[in-house]
């Protein structure tokens, strides 16, 4: 026996959640979401692999994982980066050579074509970054990244990063009233 349950959204919930009409469930499953779990799991796996390949220094893998016309809404502050996937590869090469390390995924949530990842990046500043001399110090930066996936590739990226903390660790920014830390040379 097939069980069908429908709920009509209120004007309030429709305004907040963008729902239109009614949502029906057949045997407890909303048919609008059918097959979504598989896509969501694949999208999360794609982003995990994205970070694994970066951690290996395998920039060639970006050709398989990232769309050519990729859009980074939170690009690094390096002048002269190319647009799209090539700019992403250039930025990762700069970071990989200057601050090799790893990404640790703390949390990952996905819905539809978006994957949200809370992560911590760890590295050591062994070569100069553009305008920032290397001093060999350990670096840690927390971030929340949002990736949009289309046709099995990363097509867009947004991020909130602890850039202030990162700049303090690099010795570029000092808080008022705090003496700058001595960085080993």
Short description:
The chain has 185 residues and is an alpha+beta fold. The protein contains five helices and seven strands; from the N terminus they run βαβααβαββββα.
Based on the model shown, name its key terms:
185 residues; alpha+beta; Nuclear Transport Factor 2, Chain: A; 2 domains; five-stranded mixed sheet; two-stranded antiparallel sheet; 29% helix; 33% strand; globular; disordered N terminus
Give the topology, please:
Blueprint: E1 4-8, H1 11-17, E2 22-26, H2 36-56, H3 62-65, E3 66-72, H4 84-98, E4 101-111, E5 114-124, E6 138-150, E7 153-161, H5 163-169
Parallel strand pairs: 3-7
Antiparallel strand pairs: 1-2, 4-5, 5-6, 6-7
Ranges with pLDDT <50 over ≥5 residues? 1-35
Alpha plus pi helix count: 5
Nearest-angstrom radius of gyration?
21 Å
Morphology call = globular
Number of domains: 2
């Amino acid at each position: 026996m097939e069980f069908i349950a429908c709920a009509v959204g209120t004007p309030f919930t429709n305004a907040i959640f963008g729902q239109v009409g009614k949502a029906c469930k057949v045997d407890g499953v909303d048919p609008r979401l059918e097959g979504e779990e598989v896509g969501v799991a694949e999208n999360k796996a794609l982003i995990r692999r994205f970070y694994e390949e970066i951690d290996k220094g395998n920039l060639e893998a970006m050709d398989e994982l990232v769309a050519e016309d990729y859009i980074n809404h939170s690009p690094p502050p390096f002048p002269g980066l190319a647009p799209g996937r090539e700019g992403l590869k250039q930025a990762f090469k700069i970071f990989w050579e200057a601050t090799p390390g790893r990404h640790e995924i703390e949390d990952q949530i996905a819905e539809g074509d978006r994957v949200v990842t809370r992560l911590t990046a760890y590295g050591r500043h062994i070569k100069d970054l553009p305008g920032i001399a290397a001093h060999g110090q350990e670096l840690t930066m927390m971030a929340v990244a949002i990736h949009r996936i289309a046709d099995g590739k990363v097509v867009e990226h947004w991020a909130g990063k602890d850039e202030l903390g990162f700049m303090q660790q690099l010795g570029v920014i000092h808080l008022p009233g705090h003496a700058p830390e001595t960085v080993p040379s």
